[in-house]
Amino acid sequence: MKRYIVYVKSLFLIALAVFLYGFSASRNGDKIVQASVVEFSNGANLFLSHEMVDKLLIQNGGEADNKSKSLINLHKLESIVSENPLVEKVKVFMSVSGELKTVITQRTPIARVNAGDEVYYIDKQGVKMPLSKNYSARVLLVSGGVLDSDLSSIYALVSKINSDSFLSELVVGVHKKSTGDFVLRTRKYDQYVEIGEIKDLNFKFKKLEAFYNEVIQSEELEKYKTINLKFSNQVVCTKN
Fold first, then answer.
1. For 165-174, which contacts have Cβ atoms below 8 Å and span 24 or more sequence positions?
2. Who has greater pLDDT, 9 or 206?
3. What SS3 string covers the chain?
4. Mind listing the pLDDT tens digit for each residue in 122-181?
5. What are all long-range contacts of 190-196, with beta carbons under 8 Å and residues at least 24 apart?
6. Domains with residue ranges and CATH for the chain
7. How many whole angstroms from its chain centre is CA 153?
8. Cα–Cα distance measured from residue 180 to residue 9, given in angstroms and rounded to the nearest whole number
9. How many angstroms separate the CA atoms of 215 and 166, rounded?
10. Of 174, 168, 166, 236, which is closest to residue 206 (Cα–Cα)?
């Protein structure tokens, strides 16, 4: 008999818990959205604006203000915003205070490519990123006949330049010649550094730094127009 009473009490408690959970969920779903808020997790809204995101949300989910929370499809809104090529990550959720919050991480460009018929950024993950009317990033410029097949190599080159204090101070641009070789344009004296194919970068840049350190001491750096690193055991220069 005692076992029966315990069994009945357990069923009653389970039923009560299910009822309270369902009641709470129903009440929560009936709550009204108080406002729609857009935040950018990695600083100011550079490439995207609050208005652009709000418009995107409204076009695909309707006006959220004063709408019941149960009518908001958070997953759909998240998927729509994440399709924007300027967006790296997005999270859409309802806050405790009843706000529809959209938190966006924008892509971070590391180089701007001008391939003639196409201009775009390469982001920190090596992915193509379109330009924005709202903001122009000050990044390394890449020009010439750049193909999609070059992107992984250019990404490796730009990442190497940006992560090295000597190179990042020296190099302002990368150009792909018609021969397929790559050339770096320097900040000082508008010199050109021939690196050929994008390979053996550590070896080539060690030679370049050693050359600069030696020539700077002799105060003859401005005499050189091109610096060629394509040869394995030497640096070949052309004077002005």
1. 166/205, 166/209, 166/212, 167/205, 170/212, 171/140, 172/140, 172/141, 173/140, 173/141, 173/142, 173/143, 174/111, 174/140, 174/141, 174/142, 174/143
2. 206
3. CHHHHHHHHHHHHHHHHHHHHHHHHHHHHHCECCEEEEEECCCCCCCCCHHHHHHHHHHHHCCCCCCEHHHCCHHHHHHHHHCCCCEEEEEEEECCCCEEEEEEEECCEEEEEECCCCEEEEECCCCEECCCCCCCCCCEEEEECCCHHHHHHHHHHHHHHHHCHHHHHHEEEEEECCCCCEEEEECCCCCEEEEECCCCHHHHHHHHHHHHHHHHHHCCHHHEEEEECCCCCCCEEEEC
4. 999 999 999 998 889 999 999 999 999 999 999 999 999 999 999 999 999 999 999 999
5. 191/224, 191/225, 191/226, 191/227, 192/225, 192/226, 192/227, 193/226, 193/227, 193/228, 193/229, 194/226, 194/227, 194/228, 194/229, 194/230, 195/229, 195/230, 196/229, 196/230
6. 30-106 (3.10.20.310), 109-239 (3.40.50.11690)
7. 18
8. 80
9. 15
10. 166
Q: What are phi and psi of 236, to 5 degrees?
A: -105, 125
In the β-sheet with 236-239, what is the strand arrangement from edge to edge? 128-129, 119-123, 109-114, 140-144, 171-176, 182-186, 192-196, 224-228, 236-239
**CA atoms of 104 and 114, how far apart (whole Å):** 27
